[in-house]
Amino acid sequence: MSNNEQTLSIIKPDAVERNLENEIKDMFKKKGFLIVKEKKIQIEKSEAEKFYKVHETKPFYSDLCDYLSSGPIVVMVLEKENAVLSNRELMGATNPKDAREGTIRKKYGISIDKNSVHGSDSTENAKIEIDFFFND
Ligand code: CDP
Ligand code: MG
To answer: Lowest CB count within 10 Å: 36, 51, 68, 96, which one?
Structure first.
């Protein structure tokens, strides 16, 4: 039986700006993810603030929201068995310096803030985040 799950992935401005969209999508596809929905958009800071509300008390919150709204991003729904965990593994640690070989952040991340990708951290948040961007 298949145990397909969905997760939300974002290719962040630093990666879109460096034309890494296709390379990163290839990494998802090679790991067996299906990209079931995708769109390239630019969001307002106010939308970034809603999306990252969980981090509103953190010192990096304002910079993070400025950053996510600073340029085009690619938002995707990825589908696979255990998609949430599998995507977190493929992304690597938040700080690219700590990310393992073979992960997206190791390969493409520049710094802890410009770390190229976002991925949902639980199945519950995946549903909320997918609904946030694809509420049709
Ligand atoms: O993205 P991830 O779930 O791995 O990390 P997070 O703890 O949920 O933080 C969200 C985002 O905030 C990270 O991806 C970083 O881009 C940013 N961040 C930062 O700029 N400085 C920190 N000290 C921690 C996180
Ligand atoms: Mg997170």
So the answer is: 36
